[in-house]
Amino acid sequence: MSLMTVQEVAAFLNVQEIRVERLQRESLLVAKEKDSDGNPLFDSDAVEKYKILAERLGGI
Predict the structure, then answer these.
(1) What angle do CA 2, 9, 23 make, to 5 degrees?
(2) Domains of the chain and any CATH numbers
(3) Is the pTM of this model over 0.85?
(4) CA angle 55-11-31, nearest 5°?
(5) In this structure, what are the phi and psi dihedrals at residue 38, rounded to the nearest 5 degrees?
(6) Which residue has the higher pLDDT, 50 or 1?
């Protein structure tokens, strides 16, 4: 398991960072932990699974 920052998730999903933060607030992407500044860190496997599911449902 590797952790991804909001910026890395946004780049991977090809969305803006604000969208990633909204997905987290809506519990569609769950942060595994927070960094020293309090920013969320996401499990890369969970992000990949979310991307696959979102594509099947018609896009992110």
Answers:
(1) 115
(2) 3-57 (1.10.1660.10)
(3) yes
(4) 80
(5) 90, 10
(6) 50
The number of beta carbons lying within 10 Å of the beta carbon of residue 27 is 8
Q: Which residues contact 22 (CB under 8 A, 6 or more apart)?
A: none
Rounded-to-integer distance, Cα 55 and Cα 29, Å: 15
Structure tokens at 18: 């604000």
Q: Which residues lie across from 31 on neighbouring strands?
A: 42
- Cα–Cα distance measured from residue 15 to residue 20, given in angstroms and rounded to the nearest whole number: 7
Give yes or no for residue 1 having a pLDDT over 80.
Answer: no
